[in-house]
Design goal:
Chain A is 73% helix and 0% strand. With 281 residues, chain A is an all-alpha fold. Chain B has eight helices and 20 strands. The longest helix of chain B has 18 residues. In chain B, strands 6-7-8-3-9-10 form a six-stranded mixed sheet, sandwiched between helices. Chain B has a five-stranded antiparallel sheet with strand order 13-12-11-14-20. A five-stranded antiparallel sheet of chain B has the order 15-19-16-17-18, with no helix packed on it. In chain B, strand 4 and strand 5 form a beta hairpin. The chains are: A mainly alpha (281), B alpha+beta (356). At the A-B interface, helix 8 and helix 9 of A face strand 6 and helix 2 of B.
Chain lengths: 281, 356
């Protein structure tokens, strides 16, 4: 009789305990706390578990904010896609050994502090900012607009941060599309545009969807860009949570909104996993 | 003389400082299958990509069916192409793949359906229209790729290492099948391959390429039996190379002395002069083994290997660094360590057209 060979392990399982404890205390417990808080704080006491959620969805002001959030996220996602796809396509097809350099250039904005980056846009877009000064100097305008406190500025700031996520998602898939498939289409009589629409784009759709979900979810929760560039003219869920928490002190309501945002993120994650499973049967 | 379906005139191409292709002229008559054969980096793929329109030649012109297409993009050249990895569209069914070229040419849905059926019948894969590409075996994918390339009725079929990804048995079967389909359709074809057996089996003519130039162009038997350079002799199978000196005329042939003073008679396609030093190539299956002293030279048997169809001898001769090889169907008559004599028929030794 021979003893069963002992399974090789790099480290015993007990080593994961500190990490699990850390995640449980600082991540899982606060989230569970948020769920409880929507039920037993403020106005919700004695009103049943769905009170704040019903208020959020039925009160026209709050549901309007939710719709605005989804609208901003949708526009930011589409804008990032329009900017990001050509960049990813260029990198996958023409950058060659410069790909690494371009990846660095693309992710460089993420290496800057979000506050610095956002104030940078204010410097450029403000009424007496750099852009307007140049335009005035060239005589292209006489009454400079203040773009720094405008939804336009929010979108510019968002796209600036989000394009890297879009580019990297699409690039990863585009690099896996065999160029000979495109060449096959060309030989079979398809022009450049037909080849792109019937071969390249369908085959890179996984990357497009991944990028869109990622960007959409990130925009839903982004806060500083809206706060610093929106000038109060655009109110999204994250700003509303901030107000509820700091101004109104309605922590239960703030928690409910946070949970709705988390649900949206989970739906995105679920879609992404579904897509992944479909791609690898 | 038949009109050439493809004519390359003075085609050359360089990538950066690398000259991939030196000025090249090549014409392929209608219905012929021409193989471009050579090791990787010899320029065969560059030539094919220039014909397809993926690369622009630095100089020269490409004429297909009498029309200068040098400046036309690939989609305007009416070509069919089969790639090494088949390159079928993974997001389309078999039927959609085969119909793709027809669709691009604006052929209606009804005609497409019937044409796809005809093509699938031709490659003996009838009824697989709705299959996904990943449900097919390698051999089936290869046939679908051929059906897709031929469906729009191209003027020229380009085959880029079409059988390279198949295993050996399947490859041999497909060589004959592909050849048969090509002959039945009478479609002019260019086959790019590094596999000499594939080129000899399938092509009407073989262009052997090396370092950006065609070094020999001829029928399979011509390039195999009468190679003009050492490179061609050694790339198309195994060759025993001897250095020798011409002694004088002997009837139709020439009497030459091998280094080591044994002499023999050879025929030559090029004029020779007495005293000239030459290179001789003899195929291993053309060498005969006899008793010592009976042939042009003596050699010692180093090893004998049974290879199924033949016995392969590896021999060493004095003053000769490279081993000699003999393939024979006869039962092993000599064992390792024996000294034997080697001889050959006068027509079996080929005088190479290059200086020693």
């Amino acid at each position: 009789m021979t003893a069963a060979p002992r399974k090789y392990r790099l480290a015993p399982r007990s080593w994961t305990i500190p990490a699990l404890v850390f995640v449980a205390v600082f991540f899982v417990m606060p989230l569970v706390g948020n769920l409880v808080r929507t039920n037993n704080t403020g106005e919700a006491v004695g009103q049943g578990p769905w009170f704040y959620y019903v208020k959020l969805l039925t009160d026209s002001y709050y549901s309007g904010v939710l719709l605005t959030t989804l609208e901003v996220s949708t526009i930011a996602t589409l804008a990032s896609l329009l900017v990001g796809y050509p960049v990813a396509y260029f990198m996958a097809r023409y950058a060659g050994r410069w790909t690494g350099f371009f990846v660095f250039v693309v992710i460089a904005p993420l290496l800057t502090s979000i506050i610095m980056r956002t104030f940078g846009w204010r410097v450029l877009l403000a009424r007496h900012g750099v852009l307007n000064s140049i335009f005035m100097h060239l005589g292209w305008m006489t009454r400079p607009p203040n773009l720094a406190d405008d939804p336009i500025a929010v979108y510019i700031g968002l796209v600036h941060v989000l394009v890297p996520f879009m580019v990297l998602s699409i690039l990863a898939v585009l690099q896996g599309v065999d160029r000979r498939l495109e060449e096959s289409a060309r030989v079979l009589g398809a022009g450049r545009v037909r080849t792109f629409l019937s071969v390249t784009l369908p085959l890179s759709l996984d990357g497009v969807i991944t990028g869109c979900i990622l960007v959409f979810v990130i925009t839903n929760g982004s806060f500083l860009t809206m706060l610093l560039l929106g000038g109060g003219r655009i109110t999204t869920m994250s700003l509303l949570i901030y107000q509820q928490f700091n101004t109104s002190g309605d922590i239960g309501f703030a928690a409910a909104m946070g949970n709705v945002l988390m649900l949206l993120a989970l739906v995105g994650l679920g879609l992404q996993m579904l897509l992944h499973r479909r791609a690898r049967p | 003389m038949t009109a050439s379906q493809l004519a390359l005139r003075d085609i050359s191409k360089s990538f950066g400082t690398v000259q991939a292709l030196y000025p090249l002229d090549l014409s392929v008559p209608e219905g012929e299958m021409l193989a471009l054969l050579g090791p990787s980096g010899c320029g065969k793929t560059t030539t094919l990509r220039i014909v397809a329109g993926f690369e622009m030649p630095d100089t020269g012109s490409v004429t297909i069916a009498g029309r200068n297409v040098t400046a036309l993009p690939p989609n305007k050249r009416a070509l069919g192409m089969v790639f090494q990895n088949y390159s079928l569209f993974p997001h389309m069914t078999v039927g959609e793949n085969v119909a793709f070229g027809l669709k691009m040419r604006g052929i209606g849905a009804a005609e497409r359906t019937s044409r796809v059926r005809t093509m699938l019948d031709m490659v003996r894969l009838s009824g697989l229209e709705d299959r996904g590409i990943h449900q097919l075996s390698g051999g089936q994918q290869q046939r679908i790729a051929l059906a897709r390339a031929l469906a729009p009725g191209p003027r020229l079929l380009l085959l880029d290492e079409p059988l390279g990804a198949l295993d050996k048995n399947l490859r041999e079967g497909m060589q004959f099948e592909l050849r048969q389909i090509q002959r039945e359709l009478g479609i002019t074809s260019i086959l790019v391959t590094h596999d000499q057996e594939e080129a000899l089996t399938m092509a009407d003519r073989v262009a052997v390429m090396s370092q950006g130039a065609v070094v020999q162009l001829g029928t399979p038997t011509e390039v195999y039996d009468t190679p003009n350079t050492r490179f061609v002799a050694e790339f198309l199978g195994t060759a025993n190379i001897f250095t020798a000196q011409v002694r004088g005329r002997d009837g139709d042939g020439w009497e030459v002395a091998l280094d080591g003073n044994a002499s023999c008679v050879v025929t030559a396609a090029i004029p020779l002069a007495t005293g000239q030093r030459i290179l001789l190539a003899v195929r291993p299956e053309r060498l005969r083994i006899g008793p010592p002293g009976s042939g042009a030279l003596d050699a010692r048997v180093h090893d004998v290997v049974f290879r199924g169809a033949t016995f392969a001898y590896e021999l060493r001769a004095p003053d000769r660094p490279a081993p000699l090889f003999v393939y024979t169907h006869e039962r092993a008559t000599a064992a390792a360590g024996d000294t034997v004599g080697l001889r050959w028929e006068p027509g079996s030794a080929v005088v190479l057209q290059e200086p020693t």
